[in-house]
Structures are given as C-alpha cells and as structure tokens.
Amino acid sequence: MRRIRALLARIAGLRASRRAEREMAEELEAHLEMVVAENLRRGLSPAEARRQALLASGGLTQAAEAVRAQRGLPWVQNVGADLRYAVRALRHGPAFTAVVVLTLALGIGANTAIFSVVRAVLLKPLPNHDGDRLMYLRQSADGPARASLEFSVPEIHDLREGAPSLAGIAELSPWFATLQTNDGARRLDLGLVTGNYFDVMGLTPILGRLTGPEDDGLGAPPVAVLTRDAWVQYFGADSSLVGHQIRLDGRPVTVIGVVESAPLYPVRADAFLNMVFSAHHVSATMIQGRTHRMTEVVARLAPGAGLAEARAQVATVYARMLTAHPDAYDPAAHYRISVVPFQEALGERARLTLWLLMGAAAFALVITIASVANLTLMRGIRREHELVVRVALGAGTGRLRRLLLAENLLLALAGGAAGVLLAMAGLPLLTALAARYSPRAGEIRLDRVVLGFAFAVSAAVAVLHSFLTSLPTEGTVGSVSSGGRRVGVRLPARRLQRVLVVLQVAVSVMLLAGAGLLTRTLVRLADVDTGLSTEEILSIPLPLLDPTKLSPATDLANKSLYHTLQRELRTLPGVVDVGLGSTMPLRNSAIDFDLKAEGRPPAPGAAIPQADLRTASPEFFHAAGIPLLAGRVFGDGDGPGAERVVVVNRTLADQLFPGEDPLGHRIAFTGDVLRFTPFSGDWRTIVGVVGDTRDGGPDAPRRLVVFAPFDQEFAWLGGFVIRSEADAGRLVAPATKIVRRLAPTVPLENVLTVAEVKDQSVAPQRLNARLVSWFALLAALIAAVGIAGVLAFSVSVRTGEIGIRMTLGADRARVRRMILREGGGLLAIGLGLGTIGALAAGRIIRGLLFGVTPTDPVTLGGVALVMTAIGIAACWVPAARAARIDPAITLRS
Amino acid sequence: MGIPYDGPVPGEGAVGKHDVQQGTLALMILRTIEVLGPLHGYGIARRIEETSRHQLTLNYGTLYPALLKLEQEGAIKAEWGQSENNRRAKFYGLTAAGRRRLAREAQEWQRTTDLMAVFLAPWEEAR
Fold it and tell me: Can you name the residues that pair with A296 across neighbouring β-strands?
C-alpha cells in the first residue's frame, strides 16, 4: 500500500511543476541560512560562516538533483531523453546508420523468412485435434519402388486386432476420378476413406458433416467430403452445395460437407469419398488379397498409450504376420513396418533442406552481427572523447550504457523492421520452394511467433552491441584535460575487431563452399544424360480409362480413339513421329511387378527383381528418342493375339542376363499381385533391348523396365510422344486443339516438352543452390566490407605512425605492403578456419549433393580463390590510401 | 592524471564519521519529529547530529530525498511556517500513519538490536 502510494506520488512528480522546484530551492536555501546564522552566533565572520555552511551542505546542486530523482521516476524521464539523443546521434552519422540498418535488415530478414518456413513446415503444432497423437504407419521393403508400400486390407485388419494402443486405425486409399462440369472435365485426386478417417485425423467440418461409421459398407450411398481448397477452387465456395450431387466418373455422389484446411499426407486429395464409390475397393480381391496393397494407414494413440508402447505392439503383430504369410513377404526384401508421428512424417522431405537453409541464414546473421559489431566498435572508439566528456559532466556508467542501448535498439529495430519487409517480399519464393517438400507450405505466414522471433533477434543484437563499446572508466577521465586527439586505440578493441573479421571470412568461406557444392550438384544433375537422343519431344498424357467401365469393349474403344488421335497428330506440320504408350519419357511408371526369367530361378536369399511395365506402340521408341541397342522394336505383326513379345531396357538385360545376349530369352511377370490386375503372367519373348532413360529425375535410381506392345495389353494408361523437327513447344497449341476436339471430356494436364520435364525435375535443387548462393554472396560482400573497414580504420589511426615511417625512408610500396600484409594475415586465418568448417559442415549436407563429394577439392579450391580475390580487393583500397599519406601534412597536424 | 576534486561524491549518502545505515534514517527522522513535534529540515538534521553526539552528519542530498520519500509514503506531512528567526520554512509533522509506522518499526528495530546484542555479547555475559 505504502509502495503504491509512493509510486503514484512519483508518477505525479513526473510533471515536475515550477512550484515544486521553487519550494525546493527555498527550503534548501532556508536550511543554509539557518546554518549560516548558527555559524554567525558561534562568532565566525559572515564570509567564513557561509563558506563553512556550504561545505557542510554537501553541495546544493547535488542535493537538488537527488531530490528531483526522488520526486519523479528518473529512469522513465531518461528514456525519453536517451531516445531523443539517440535519434540525434544517428541522424548525425547517416552513412553509419544506413549501413548498419541495411546490413541488419539483410541478416534479420533472411532469418525471419527462413524461420517462418521452418516454423510452418516443421515446428508449428498440427491444426488437427491432439495432432501430436496422430501417427502414420509405413510398410516398406528393399528395392527402389518399395520405400513406401501401402497396406492391404487383411494387413490393416491384423493391425486393428493386435495393436490396442492405437485407438483408431483409418484407411485412406489414393484414387482419382473425373469431375464432369459444365465447361468440360477435371481430374480430381480422391482419397477413399473409412468412416472413421476424420475422427482419427482429428478434423472438423466447416460445412455440413464428415464421414462416419454409417458411410462404411456396401449398402451406404456414395458420399463426398470436399477439402476447403477444392470447394473454393472448383465449386466457387458455394455453401448450397452440401446435400447436392456432383458427377464423378459419371456417377452421382452426394456432397455431405467441407473439411477444414489441414495438411494432407501422404497424398493430396481434392475430395474424400467412402469406399463404396469404387467397386474395386469393396470387391473380394481388395478385401481378401494380402498383397493387394493400395491403402495408406493413419492411426491415433489410445488415451494413455505412448508411442513406444504402440511401436512395440505393432512390431509384434507385424512379426506374426510375416511368419503366418511367408508367401506375401519375400524374406530377401526385408519387409518392415514403422510408426511415425504424423507431424514428423509431414516434415521428412523438407527437414534436411530447411535446416540447411536455416543454417545458411544463421551464418549470414553471424556475419551481419560481426560486421555491425565492427562498425560499432570503430564508432565507439571515435566517440571515446565524447563519452569521456559526458562522464566528466556527471553521467554515470549506467546512464551511458542506457544511452548506447537506446541507440542500438533504434538501429536494430529499424533493421529488424526493414528485415521483416524483406522477408515479406521473399515469402512467395520460399512458399513455392516449401510446397515441393511439404504439404504444410500453405501455412507459411509472418505470424506473431515469427514477428516475435524477428523482434527477439533485433533486441539481442542491440544488447550485444551495447556492451561492445567499452565505457570510459575513472582512469580515462584524464584524457579530457589533454583535449587532443588520442593517438593509440586500446588494444582489446582492435583485437576484437580482428577476431570479428576473421570470423566473417571464415563463415563466408563456409557459405561459399556450401553454395559451390550445391551449384555443382545442380550442374551435375543438369548434365546427367537422360538417355534420350533428343529433347525436341512433346508429351501428352491422356488417361482415357474410366475405372467404372472396365470391359474388353471399352478397352477396344479407348484403343481405337488413341489410334485415331495418333493419326491426327501425325498430320501436324513439323512432326517427325508420334508414339503411343502408357508412360511418358522421363516419368515414372505406375505399375511394377515381380519378374522371373525362364530357366533361371533366383539365387536362394536373393531378392526377387521388380520391373516396371510400360506399353509402347512401334513408333514410340523413335518418337521418344529412346535408342535401340539390340534386336528390334515392335512391328505391325505384334498385334493382339500374336506371340507375346517385349522390349527391355539395358538395366534389365544387364541384371537378368549378365554377359549374355538377352534376345530370344523369355521372361514373365509373377507374384501374388498379378491376379488382381488385367495383366498376364504368360512368358514373353525378348525381341529388343533399348537404352536406359533417367525416369523420375536425374538422381533417381535406375530401374528395370519391360515394354509390351500397346495393342497387346490392356490400355490402363495412354498418351502421345511427339517428336518434332525443331522447337517442340510450338506444337502444344495445335496438338492440344486436336485432343480437345476428339476427347472433349478427358482432362488434359502436364502437356510438357521433355526439356520442361527435365527442368522441373531439378527445380528443387536449383532453388537450394540459388538461395544458398545468395546467402554466400551476401556474406562474402559483407565480409569484404568488413575487411576494408577495419583496415581503413587501422590506417586512419596509424596515419601519424605511417607519416613517421615515410619520413624515415619507407617508400609508398612498402607502406602499401605493410597494410596489405595486415589484411592478408586476417584473410589467411579466416580462409584456414573457414575451410576446416566447410569440411566439417559438408558432411551434414551430403544428402543434398549429387555427383560431388562434400570435400570436393575443385569447389573448395575455387572458393578459396574467390574469397582471396574478394579479400585482396577489399584490402587494396585502404592500402592505396595509406600509400597516399603525405608525411609532411601528417606530421604537421 | 585526474581532475583534482575531493569534495563529496553525489549520491553516496551521509558523509561523516559514520554512514547512515540503510533504512535507519527514516526511523531517526520519524522519532525526531515525534519527540520535538513539527520541525523543519535544519532542525531535524541538527537534532539527529546532536543525538548521535556528532557521530552522524547529514548533508542535504541525503536528508531532503529521505523527507520527500516519507512524505510520498504518507508518513509525514509538510506545511510552510515561520522559523524561530522569522524565516519562512517548511515544517514536517507526523501523520497518523507515520505514528503507527514509527511504533511498529521501533519495536522491530528494538527486537533486532536486542537479539544482535545477545549474539554479539562477550561469552561470559551471554551465559
């Protein structure tokens, strides 16, 4: 109570009235007069009486100041004064202010931007209810196509039975359908889900309802839950849509609701439908086939259950499954299962790249802080005289520190604010980058946490820099009386400057090395031979298959349309050849099967090989630029009913028939999965071998490929490869027009030239390389400015010394060498440390490299050269200035 | 080096044979006013110096902020009046709250000093 009263009185005292001042002066004066009167009574002379009284008072001015301090809140009053002073001081040095604000803006901006991505993609809790209890189950096995195998319905059934610590296990089967709209058709990505899916995912509807147990089973009518994005994008956010029907693959489906925005994994979807939508999903093959794996599984930890417990239970069930069904799990392929927290699974692909960028940004921040620290130090040394005067005039050390803090806070906050603006500008680019790695890219925002991060970094920078400038202590007060310019600068400050420059160079070298490695990775990737003999190829994937109408009759009709289109496209001017096939060049196949070769049982313990199945018309290979290495391609004789023939790629030939001529040998697809498909396990004779192509990206592993004649197989997919005389991109418009005319209801997407496909496949690496290169360039520039600044400062404080040296006979070249040596030493140490750092850090980014080792001598050598060149250029300016010093002028001043 | 200056350093409290112990000055002031009735700053300082047998000397920079603090806390109340030699001076008198505070703090202080006396007394006496 007493405290509060006193505080209120002091707050009132902030508005120090003139009356209070007058009364205080009168009171102090009255006191003095009474002492004087007393002294007079004791017989002192009037002058002596007053002198004694003043001596005993302890100083009237100091007393008045002490009373004023008690009257108001001096701290509050001083903050205002400090800020006013800081603004004035900064305005006084506009160049310093501008450089510091800009440097900090770059450093803080980069960190803010990258942090916003890291937060959204990796750190932010999921929007799902109790998102941390949400789990993703992954089954995998050895082999390029089996990193994520999905699950079959019997497997999911076993898991439900045996893992009670998973409260709900929901199924999500990726599917697609064509949405008929008034103006054509659009392919929708679907998730076929069990009724408990949204419950397990912890999602709520923003409109209508979500699926429930009543939507499971054969008797339920097909219903759809739209994602928010699809609802807005394809249905114009029409809220009257709920309860109405849309047509998917020609079937009416009732829209029951719209689900809130949430990251979807492992597949994106526009809409979620109950299983009954797909006849296949409720068929016996699907329900009973243990190897019929086409369902993703999400689960929720039961209340009270832990992750370790769930993992143990799942492992036990899985081990039991492996023993009970040896035919479904090839032991050599090492089938395994893992329970991954959903959020972790979402961040898997982005993690390494994002931490790389965050690391690069943090390094850039270290450099900017070091650079600003150096500027602050130099300014502090130049201001020493001013600070000494302020101490002499009564400012306490604390007051001075506060003053510096106010200045630095202003600078850092201005830098931080500018940085946030920069981050805002960079956000679209970063969102595009993150979208390649994470379904959470849409959540990237400069929200409160990110802004708080930017503010915290700014404040930390300000505090750090405020304690860099050493304040004058009692000993230095004497230099006021000397009044002149100080010749020397305290050693610790100069040493710190040098350490900071070395740090800047070292960190720049590390960033440059990272940029160099990533850029070389990009070059290597772009240089990878695609295996195609030309890039003037346009690919038009065109899925005609309607999964609801699977019959030999529709297959024939589709094939006939494909052939008609092929003939029409062939007539376009400039077209060399038009091929027809299931899989476009450089794209991954959709289907692969276990493979066996006649008369060669696989070695015991060896994994059964898998091969992609693709179809191709006779013209396909020439049109796609896939070189024929041996034998022949398909001909008109390889039609339906003729002997089954195949063309294989080189990898298959090498792996199954090492050192032999594969032509004439017979191979066949095998495995349990085959019986769920329209493809036969009959023996097929190899009639040709073609070159490998880099499908799925230049760094993707090579795969075994079997081409079957287009007309001999079921046309589950199809599309055209158009080889052009020149400039394949020119064909997009006329070719699209033909397809639109003959197949108006078929969605037409990914009409791309091979060059575009190739370009797309290295886009993530290009963004990585570009971003890190920007950071590195920025760092090297700031480091160069740092070296130049420190040397220039060194020259300016050593002007007198240099003048004396020159008088004593040192010539200009010698002086220049002296300064260059000073800079060169710092540069060399920085280079050495940076190279060591780069070697250590290289190991971390190994996973992002292709075709170069983290210790690539060419890159590291190149980086050293670049940094040396930048460093010497930075040293040259101050060295030349030192050499221009006129001893006559220097010594006289 | 250094500017020759050996005057008092502002803010260092009382200068004299003894520094005024933190927190005791307020109690001394309150007690002085209680004994002598409303009094001006000079009177308070004189009385404290005399009572301490001149072991304490209060400079203005110590006394007046302390008075202001007590006033802000509501323990004393200031009024302008005439001094003995007919000067206008500010007289400080105890308020009811000040009286209560004095009684409480004096008692606490007494207890503390008694306790410390027992502890610091020569060994035989303590027994």
Answer: A172
Structure tokens given for A705: 């490929």
Q: Which of A31, A59, A394 sits opposite B8 (nearest CB)?
A: A59
Instruction: Tell me which amino acid residue A164 is.
Output: P
Q: Tell me the C-alpha to C-alpha distance, in Å, between residue A56 and each of A549, A857, B3, B85.
A: 111, 79, 22, 21
CB atoms within 10 A of CB A217: 12
Which mean pLDDT values do the consecutive 10-residue runs of chain A (893 residues) have? 73 72 87 89 90 84 79 72 82 84 90 92 90 93 79 93 90 88 80 94 93 90 94 90 89 93 88 91 85 91 92 94 88 89 89 86 88 82 75 70 86 93 90 84 89 93 81 48 45 77 89 89 85 88 78 89 94 93 87 87 80 94 94 91 93 90 93 80 94 86 92 90 90 90 84 87 83 85 82 81 85 87 90 91 83 89 91 87 80 67
Give B-chain residues touching A53 at CB under 8 angstroms.
none
Query: Chain A to chain B, count of Cβ pairs less than 8 Å apart?
Result: 99
Asked if A696 contacts A658 with a C-beta cutoff of 8 angstroms, the reply is: no
**DSSP output for A466-533:** HTTSPPP-GGGGHHHHH-S------HHHHHHHHHHHHHHHHHHHHHHHHHHHHHHHHHHHHHS--S-S
Q: Which of A62, A67, A480 sits opposite B68 (nearest CB)?
A: A67
Partner residue opposite A37 with nearest CB, options B2, B65, B85: B85
Question: Cβ A66–B15 below 8 Å, yes or no?
Answer: no
Cβ–Cβ < 8 Å for A449, A430: no
**Structure tokens that stand for B35 in this block:** 């004994």
B42 touches chain A (CB under 8 A): yes
The burial of A677, by beta-carbon neighbours within 10 Å (0-12 exposed, 13-18 middle, 19 or more buried), is given as middle
Residue B14 has pLDDT above 70, yes or no: no
Q: Which residue in A181, A266, A194, A199 sits closest to A223, CA to CA?
A: A194
What is the C-alpha separation between A595 and A838, in angstroms, rounded?
45
Distance in angstroms (rounded) separating the CA atoms of residues A136 and A263 = 13
Cβ-based contacts of B91 with chain A (< 8 Å): none
- Does A486 reach chain B within 8 Å, measured CB to CB? no
Residue A266 preceded by cis peptide, ω within 30 = yes
3-state helix, strand, coil in chain A (%, to 5): 55, 15, 30
Confirm whether pTM is higher than 0.80.
Answer: no
CA distance A192 to A248: 13
d(CA A68, CA A76) in angstroms, rounded, equals 13
Q: How confident is the model at residue B1 (pLDDT cuts 50, 70, 90)?
A: very low
Task: Retrieve residue A96's tokens.
Answer: 């310093």
pLDDT band at residue B9, thresholds of 50, 70 and 90? Answer: very low
Q: How far is B100 from chain A (nearest CA, A)?
A: 13
A56-72 burial by CB neighbour count: b if 16+ within 10 A, else e? bbbbbebbbbbbbbbbb
Do B7 and A59 contact (CB within 8 A), yes or no? yes
Residue A83: name the closest of A380, A379, A388, A410 by CA. Answer: A410
Rounded to two decimals, the ipTM of the complex is 0.81
CA–CA distance from A146 to each of A138, A141, A597, A672, A675 (Å)? 11, 5, 21, 16, 19
Position B127 pLDDT exceeds 60: no
Please check whether residue A723 is in contact with residue A625, taking contact to mean a CB–CB distance below 8 angstroms. Answer: yes
- Are the beta carbons of A718 and A679 closer than 8 angstroms? no
Which residue is listed with tokens 């610590």? A165
Question: Kind and range of the H or E element at A190?
Answer: strand A184-193
Count of positions (residues) in chain B: 127
Please tell me the predicted confidence (pLDDT) of residue A569.
94
Interchain proximity B59–A63, CB inside 8 Å: yes
